[in-house]
Amino acid sequence: MKAKKGSLILALFGLIILLGLALAAEPAKKITAVKIKPDIVLRELKLTRLSGDAAGERIRIRAVVFNPVAMTSTGPFQVRASVRLPSGLYFRIGEETVSGLTYTGATAKIPSRTVDFPYDVLPGHTYHFLVTADVPSQVAERSEDNNRQEADYRMASGGFPDAGGDEVVVGGVDLVVSRVEITRGTFAGREKIQIVPTIRNMWHGGTAERIKILFDGLGLAEWVEGGIGGDETKRAGAVYVECDAALSLPLNFSVVVDSDDAIVETNDLNNRCGPVRFAAGDTHVVHECPIRGPHEPLI
Fold first, then answer.
1. Which candidate, 281, 275, 299, places its Cα nearest to that of 216?
2. Do the strands 220-224 and 148-154 form a parallel or antiparallel pair, or are they unpaired?
3. Does pLDDT of 299 surpass 50?
């Protein structure tokens, strides 16, 4: 009996050793961390007359770059200013190194850097300037579509910019919803309520980013493809609400442009239009949205 018990103990002990060896031989599972990418954004471009007379002027080309992605750092990168020649090629005016933009996310203040380039202009010519951040693509970032801004400058014969002042400001995006059209009718053979928003960019810069429009209160969304240009108005695509037994009127909702905050704007507080109301007896309603500023970049 004692011999059987000893054999059983030895067998269990051997099994434990084998199990331990098997576990030790099993490779550890690899945990892959997802790295959050920064985003270098060149928000606005400002051309300012510093000095001059009818024979020529010295202007300042000023751009602001920043990184709005929390818990990321860009590392060093270059900002380049160029002017377009009559041949269509660009002549490099200068470059400046930005040591890096680190955003911890601990505060609401987004890190930014202002870069300046001087340039001399002559009367009778229109100068087309291009400022590009992160050349030549030194930083792996979330989007490469918001790294540049362009602007024109022309002296009048009296030695002042044709814009009528000493400063030409371009760049920056401010998106608003300007109008919401609602129509009840037959669409694709079924009774529906069609909702079509119109969005507007209230400032001079543009974006190529896809723009999300949320219909808050209806659980619907629409996207404007291809972005929007400076001072441009766009009629977005339609969304539809089915007129069935589940529909409860009136409809009360708001329309929010750039609802996912994917686009850096000069003013994020004027993206919402509403409340918008469509009553049971309505067949067609045009809701004009109040538009609130400021729209210009705040540097």
1. 275
2. unpaired
3. no
Nearest-angstrom CA–CA distance, 78 and 70: 21
- What is 41-171's CATH number, 3.80.10.10, 2.60.120.460, 2.60.40.10, 3.40.640.10? 2.60.40.10
- List pLDDT tens digits, range 111-153: 888 999 999 988 878 889 999 999 888 898 888 888 888 888 8
Q: Which residues pair with 72 in a beta bridge?
A: 103
Distance in angstroms between the alpha carbons of the first and the last residue of the chain: 91
Q: Residue ranges of the domains in the chain?
A: 41-171, 175-288
Write the pLDDT tens digit of every residue in 65-101. 988 888 899 889 999 999 988 778 889 999 999 998 9
Structure tokens at 3: 């011999």
For 148, counting Cβ atoms within 10 Å of its Cβ (0-12 exposed, 13-18 middle, 19+ buried), the class is middle
Task: Indicate yes or no: pTM above 0.85.
Answer: no
Peptide bond into 136 cis (omega under 30): yes
CATH architecture group of domain 175-288: Sandwich (2.60)
- Dump strand ranges (E) for the chain: 41-53, 56-66, 72-73, 77-84, 90-98, 102-103, 112-121, 126-133, 148-154, 167-171, 175-187, 190-201, 211-216, 220-224, 233-235, 239-242, 251-257, 272-278, 284-288
Backbone dihedral angles phi then psi of residue 5, each to the nearest 5 degrees: -65, -40
